[in-house]
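2024-03-11 09:14:02 DEBUG pipeline.ingest accepted 1 chain
2024-03-11 09:14:02 DEBUG pipeline.ingest length=130
2024-03-11 09:14:03 DEBUG pipeline.predict start
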Amino acid sequence: MKTENKKITYFYWSLLILLAVFFAISGFMEITKNPSTYPKTLRMGYPPYFILTLGIAKIAGVVALLIPNLKRLKEWAIAGFTFDVIFAFISGRAINSNADCIKAVIVFCVLILTYFLLLKRESFQSEVTI
């Protein structure tokens, strides 16, 4: 593996693990109805059954991210997380929470960068197998 490929791979996995930790914590907090986030999510207008379902989906997405060699499943997880942070941004604006909006923008940027690194890694791997 070339040095550039190794750098991209390390950067990709670093960001992927960062995303996995973020969404695992977020999903866990939603499933357990953590008092530091649950009331605010209810105030945003989301029903309790949706919050629980979202938490379960986040944990499933984290598992999908961490399983190697499942590009299509990773893409679906990244797409789901992208929708999540877009709606988190919109919800943050709805309750005038700049902190939630900033967090959503940061996570969105990390998601996009991770996705492009996934594509870059795939192109390197396809060149090796040809």
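2024-03-11 09:14:41 DEBUG pipeline.report The CA atoms of residues 90 and 96 lie 10 Å apart.
2024-03-11 09:14:41 DEBUG pipeline.predict end
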